[in-house]
């Protein structure tokens, strides 16, 4: 439903740019510059807002941008209540988009790059959650910590752009994915949409890793190679795991598709286990405690297949992970069973919280043909004798850097007959292969995953959407 107050807010912003009547909270010097050179100032203003210069006290918003600022400020200042209020506001605002002026509305199917949907360059926040731990309550209101967040405003904005693209891409694909779809076509469609919505720009913005579409007992790291004619079936359980990135800030998020309702409890187990892991996460929280919280929820579910009742198991040798710029696995693991490491989560860290629920052994091993590869993040210069391997490495450096890629990505940029060279790069340790990860044949695995950010003042579930 359109909230009238919100529409007014959006229109007021448009006027502010057109007519020179900027929100009252702008400083004098900002006002001067605005009158001087409106076009250039628009960007500058967005940046000022991003770093929290404007604070809209009444929370009504003096413009679309002011509204965003209000949300950010509320999240930072008001703790749970403020954050929730801000989240609500954002929801309303989203729905009121595409009114007379202000932000543009996405088409169906989506065709407008996300940066073009947010003309002020400010992308929506994820879900804001305050830290539950007693020792963290001071964080909600600390002015010092808010200042620390202002310094990170551009990073937050980059990763939120990647998150908004992830939401829009997946929500469209959820409508498209039906039994009978060929997986390779599905992946190419998803990746094409990611590239266009993020406004792909070399390594500055684009896909963060190949589209995983692992089926049934395959838990992760499967995407079709050229010539793979696998078609999605009614009884398949498919994990769609894909990534977007802006300036190396990665969103890694996944969901499960199954058409047969017998798998509903399996999906729910993983979805709720992931939510439990996210709820348990926090600054100075031990990773083993997150794992225990996940397992407890996961293994409280059971499902019936062919008259047999099966308890869902957490896959004990799969984990979530910390994320750093251009580094999908940055060193810390988020276990999904108890008994893990006591290492703590820290302020400012990004984590992919992902859980895998299985009807099999709950233990995976590498199997099947490899499609996923990634340069070793820490590898230095390695002298190569084979000219073809040298040339392929140059292509990988230019196109993917340290981001993961798949054989199809090499195909689409025109590489042919690269398997020997690729093997050489793997043998020398420069590139690491990531083969499919499989539980026992005949079983089914579900997965849900979000990327979260442990901000100084609150936890932000960056990839949260209305779907999951
Ligand atoms: Co992940």
> What Rg, in angstroms, do the CA atoms define?
23 Å
Average pLDDT score: 85
Question: What does the largest sheet look like?
Answer: 7 strands, antiparallel
Q: Identify the overall geometry.
A: globular
Bound molecules: cobalt (II) ion
Helix amount: 25-40%
The chain-level structural class is alpha+beta
Low-pLDDT stretches are: 1-26, 30-36, 52-101
* Strand content bin: 15-25%
Output the number of helix runs. 14
What distance lies between the first and last C-alpha atoms, to the nearest angstrom?
A: 21 Å
Extended strand count: 18
Topology:
Elements (H helix, E strand, L loop, with lengths): L3 H16 L8 H9 L1 H13 L13 H14 L1 H18 L17 H4 L9 E3 L13 H8 L2 H24 L6 H16 L6 E11 L2 E3 L16 E10 L2 E10 L5 H17 L6 H12 L3 E4 L2 E4 L1 E2 L4 E5 L9 E3 L14 E9 L6 E2 L5 E4 L11 H13 L5 E2 H6 L6 H9 L3 E4 L2 E2 L6 E10 L4 E3 L7
Antiparallel strand pairs: 1-18, 2-4, 3-16, 4-5, 6-7, 8-11, 9-10, 9-11, 11-17, 12-16, 13-14, 13-15, 17-18
The structure holds cobalt (II) ion.
Which key features would you list for this structure?
globular; three-stranded antiparallel sheet; alpha+beta; binds cobalt (II) ion; 14 helices; about 20% strand; about 475 residues
